[in-house]
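Why does this matter for the project? Reviewers at the last site visit asked to see concrete outputs rather than summary tables. In response, this paragraph embeds two records directly. Each consists of the residue sequence and, immediately after it, the corresponding structure tokens. Nothing has been edited or filtered.
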Amino acid sequence: MNLVLVLKSAAIAALTLTALPVAVHADGNRVTIDQWGQSNEIGGGQQGWRNRLTINQQGWGNSTIATQDGARNRTVIGQTGAGNGVIASQLGRCNILGVAQMGSGNQASATQSGGCNALGVIQAGTGNHASAVQSGSGNVAVIVQD
């Protein structure tokens, strides 16, 4: 009887924790993850200090892979709909990334290396694909699709 009670309590605790936003801090790094819907996937990593990674996936079947290596990098991802995917990578310092995909079946890939680069991707409709690579310093890129 006690084992059943422990298993039920553990299951309730696990469900409660997965429904809450998660914020993790280490070396001034910050990760915030919000997921609703079903079958959403996130993978990522941070190395360095004062990096910020925010991911918010609603809908279902959305996936994000995001990495940051360096200092004071900022990635914000988004995604609603279904079947959207993002691969984002930042290497260096002071880079700002972006991305917000509202429809379904959108795919974005963004890579930044260097310093103080800015990039944004907004894809509102269905089945859009965007890819951007920045290296060096002071680069700006904006991709908007419907």
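We now turn to the second protein, recorded in exactly the same manner.
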Amino acid sequence: MLKNTEGLKCSARRRSEAATERAQSAIQRMQADEVEINFRSVAAQAGVSTAWLYKTKALRAAIMKARHTSPAAAGENPQHRQRLSQERIVATLRLRIKILEESNRTLTEQLESAYGRLAIPTTKPDSARRLHVNDVRVPMNSKKKLANYR
């Protein structure tokens, strides 16, 4: 049985050519914008996979050449990138500390208000309930007398 696969081959070839054009135009746009060029960024711009870019020899060579000659890559050194990374980490940690301090402050205020509500006696004067050991008692006479100290 003979299968007609010419239509499939033609469709695959057209899709491959369209992806190649998208990748080449993405490389040209990125060079014009002076953006750092690497396989991942070109793949994201062109809407193709990085594996396909690595597999296509012409595009692979173009990206490798553009990667080493791009102004973004030429101006950066590893120490500069490391310092930027450390600054971002410090900024992130400072923001996290600020958020946690605010959360701690609100929780402390809620705890203080809860303690304040517990300190107010909740027993009703007409209540038949007996006082419990843990009930808060308000002293009736807060003045100290000399007789209490003898």
